[in-house]
Structures are given as structure tokens and as C-alpha cells.
Amino acid sequence: MATINLGNIKFNWKGTYDANTTYAIDDVVSYNGSSYIAKTATTGNLPTVTANWDLMSQAGTNGTNGTDVGTTITTQGDLLYRDGSGLQRLAKGTASQLLRMNSGANAPEWATVSGGTIKQIKICPLGGTQYSHNSQSYTDVGAQFQLTITPTASSNKILLWCQVAPQMSNQGRGYYTFSKAGDSSGDGDLVGSNGIANAENIAQHGNGWLTFFYMDTANSTNALTYKLRQKPSNSTNLATSVAQDYNFMMAIELDQTKVV
User: Fold this and answer.
1) Neighbours of 51 (CB within 10 A)
2) In a shared domain, residues 184 and 246
3) Single pTM value for the model
4) Are 87 and 193 part of one and the same domain?
5) How far apart are the C-alpha atoms of 167 and 237, rounded to whole Å?
6) Which residue from 102, 118, 198, 239 puts its CA 20 to 30 A from 67's CA?
7) What Rg value do the Cα atoms of the chain yield, rounded?
8) Could you read off the pLDDT of 77-113 as tens digits, one per residue?
9) How many C-beta neighbours within 10 Å does residue 54 have?
10) 181 contacts 233 by C-beta, under 8 angstroms
């Protein structure tokens, strides 16, 4: 019976092309990401030589525009994004920065985000002392109603907030204001005469709560001391901090750029 040579009945994978290797028909190699099949016995002929090789499968492009991702992002922490033409690198940001869209809303960027509107709060320690005066000139209420705050910017606002329970030995009106020290351009009582707040018809058995606010401009980054001051409308004693546990004074520094 005659012998029939069927030849190779499957491809012979030879791995990466080697110029020193002799290849037979139907040997398959890889070269620059593509696969080639030998159509002749060949040695030293690159797979791109069409007389000896046929293209079996062709490598695609890397990424979306032929750019290798590994050469686009090069540093730990880099981010990869696509712009209008292809892949782009966003270098890593610095500590505490946040990722946001740019002003054109077409690419990401790192941004240092400032704090919120409130920069800091100082609160007087609550105490159990009741302060009483009968001078018709403003007088410091006492240590329970004074605090020191150091603004982070001279343009920022200082919101003063106070709550007191006033009482007078005889019926009359009580006036309150704040003084400021530390800002050479604006030391002294912030509001004179009738003050920031006043309560009318306060009597020994008629006291109530009085809550009031005042917005000041820091005008300095020095340590500023604010004090609550009071005066009665007549020579009757004006007592502040009756029901002591519910009296307080605080200063809140507000970022001027965010106060609208």
C-alpha cells in the first residue's frame, strides 16, 4: 500500500521569533505582538517577509489611541482619564487635596479646599457667680462673660452671642454692650449709649432671658478680648447671671469670603 504523507495536521507553536532558528512550513511564531505562520522553510527571515511568512493574527493598539497605559501613568498615585483626543495622565495630588472637575467641566483636577464658614468657636466657661452693679456707666459684668479669640484673618467676622438672665432690685431697664481689646484701631465699647441689647421693666420678680448677637469685624490677627458690659437705667442694682446655669457668651469666627 502506498504511503501518503499528510504533513502537519496542526500548527506548530514555536514561541517568540528567533533569527537563528530554522522554521518549517506551518511553524507559528510571535513577533511584535502579532502571530505569523511559515509558508516556506526559512532561517533568518523576519516574519514580516511575506515571501516566507503569512500574518496569522495582528496585534491591536494599546489603550484607545495607541498609547500604552504603562507609559502614560508613570508614578504611584497617578490617575488615568480620557480627554478629547485620548488617554491622559493626572499626576497625584498632595496630602488633603480633593479631586474635582475643572472650571470647564471636561477634566479632573486636584484642589485644595478651604474650611467651612466657621473657623473657630470660643465659649466662656459657665460659672455660678452673679454680678450686680448700680453704676449708670457701663461696667464689666465679670470673668464669666469675657473671652479671648485669635482670628485667622483680619477680614473675618466675629459673631458674638450672649444669653443672660437679668434682674433689678427695683423696676427699670438694663442695657448691655460688648467691649473689645487687642485691635488698636477699634478698642473700647462696640456700641455705646443704649447698647447692643436692653431689657425693659426688669424687676426683682420679673426677670427673664435676654439673648442677643453682635457681628464684629476682626480687623486684626492679634488676640482679641471681648467682654460683656452692663448698666442700669437708674441707680438700682442690675444683676446678671440670675439662674446661672443658663447664661453663656461665645465668639464665632466666620470666614468673610463665605458670609453673604
Assistant:
1) 8
2) yes
3) 0.57
4) no
5) 8
6) 102
7) 42
8) 899 998 888 888 999 999 888 899 998 999 999 988 7
9) 11
10) no
